[in-house]
Amino acid sequence: FPDLFALAWYLQGIVLWFSMTAPSLTIGWCVLRWVRVNWQSPLEKALFSTILGEGFLALLTLGLAFLHLLSPIVLGSVCFLGALLFFFLLFKFSEVRFLIQESCRQAFSFIFGKESPLILRIFLWAYLGMSFMMAFVPDLFYDALVYHLGAPNLYLQERGLVRTHGVLSKVPMIWQILYPYGLALHDEMVPKLIHWSSSLFLLLGFGSLSQRFSSSPMGAVSGLLFLSIPMVQMNLWTSGIDVGGALFAYLAVYAALVALNAQETPESPPEEKDSARGWIFLAAIFSGFSFGSKYQGGFTSAIVFIILFLVPLYHEPKRFRSLLPDIFIFNCVLFIVIAPWLLKNLYDAGNPLFPFLSPIFTKLNLQKMQMDPYQWVGFINENRRYIAHTWGEIWKLPWTLAFKDSNQSSLSFTGAGPLSFLLLSLLWIPNLKKWWAQGLFLYLVLFFAASFQSTHLTRYHLQGYPMLCFFLGLGFHQAWSKNRAIFRIFLT
User: Fold this and answer.
1) Residue 371 backbone phi and psi in degrees, to 5
2) Closest CA to 18 of 200, 196, 193
3) Does residue 352 have a cis bond before it (omega within 30 degrees)?
4) DSSP states of 152-168
């Protein structure tokens, strides 16, 4: 058992993590005051406010790094001023107090309440508690030590952005740029808590979305399915970024589905149409944040755009002109959000998408560094070792990835258990008449088709797992409401 000094050190890390989360909620709340959306619950608004604020805090920190102002004093001042602003708004605005009180009550009720079966809650608590405890263990993850923590630590030593020879330090790093707060003021415990909190927010997001579309407590099933994926747990034990990227992708699709639902009725009142545009605005922001977390977010951004406008056009082709302003808003906001990371790479490597498209930017005499050709070939071969080329290979792919790959797939593949629940989800297919349901189904098909064609390493598909688990949860709800015996069999 840890001694008092260790407990005090852990408590200090938790307080510092909170001093970043509270300002994030404040920043997001201030931004969302200018966005017209109809919130389903205080929990939904608090969730979107907090994660939106984290994204903008990352962009602020990137600006400080560009200006070479990264130092413990500056980062500590940002946390202190953010906490002051949080408490100022808390005491000044009754709306903020109500938001905090009600969202905390709803979150507590969702995680600990009796709406879902006890066996689900027990396993949910076990996965959350285990991953939370691992946040206090020193990080030994290779990726974290080399670039998730290594690059931010170098930026701290140099007080800002510097050019490095590490190829993987060139990727978008919206989560890594938040980690200097912990590294400067504490240690890697705070980055690990930041990453762990993304699983907690995802869990609350499952509950919020299930209440909006199905009025059921089965969001706990979706959360349990997601947290039980081995690679999710492995990532939560580290200062990684994959679960954080999955959170941004989930909220991007979440916002898109709500926008589709608001557009479904042609005779919608003006405030409902304004709400749809607000949700499209949020879908664009979070799509940009998912790209800022990992290049795989490019799939998310493109597919969110497709489902937002393809589904309405399929049902009402004459609406094309009326959708043009929304298309313009989505693309402009998306570009503005991802532009800082593209500019960072352009400054750092001479290629905004480095190491991709290197031949093009080399011919333009813009690229300043080259990836070792043997390293690049090894990277591509590792990622595409089990790409399926025939229908037979596709059908055997789940078995191959789960049991025959000595690399990462056996850890990250969802496994036979969760995949068997896809059969259960067939009970929910009659609901595909709704626009948001069609958008969800189309997103899952397009995302995993594109992602599996790019790599067999299923860790890189993590941005699609939350919505897949939500879809599975809907199947559980259908079984629960129609035949609880079937539900108990699958649960067992």
Assistant:
1) -80, 140
2) 193
3) no
4) HHHHHHHTS----S-GG
The residue that leads in pLDDT, 413 or 4, is 4
DSSP state of 296: T
Is residue 315 a contact partner of residue 360, using CB atoms and an 8 Å limit? no
pLDDT bucket at 416, cuts 50 / 70 / 90: very low
| Start-to-end CA span in the chain (Å) | 35
How far is it, in rounded angstroms, from Cα 331 to Cα 352?
18
Q: How far is CA 72 from the centre of its chain?
A: 28
Per-residue pLDDT, averaged over 350-363, amounts to: 83
Q: Using CA atoms, how far apart are residues 188 and 162, in angstroms rounded to an integer?
A: 21
| Rounded Cα–Cα distance for residues 355 and 171 (Å) | 8
Q: Closest by alpha carbon to 13, among 191, 277, 195?
A: 191
Surface-to-core class of residue 110, CB atoms within 10 Å of its CB (0-12 exposed, 13-18 middle, 19+ buried): buried
Give me the torsion for CA of 410, 415, 416, 419, rounded to 10°: -140
pLDDT digits (tens, 9 = 90+) for 365-396: 888 777 766 666 766 666 666 666 777 777 77
Cα dist. 62→180, 233, 249, 373 in Å? Answer: 11, 28, 21, 30
* 170 vs 168: CA distance, rounded Å: 5
**Residue 74 pLDDT:** 93
Cβ neighbours around 256 below 10 Å, total: 30
Whole-angstrom CA distances from 285 to 239, 251, 301, 392, 441 are: 24, 10, 10, 40, 22
Contact residues for 47 (Cβ-Cβ < 8 A; gap 6+): 103, 201, 204, 205, 208, 251
pTM above 0.85, yes or no: yes
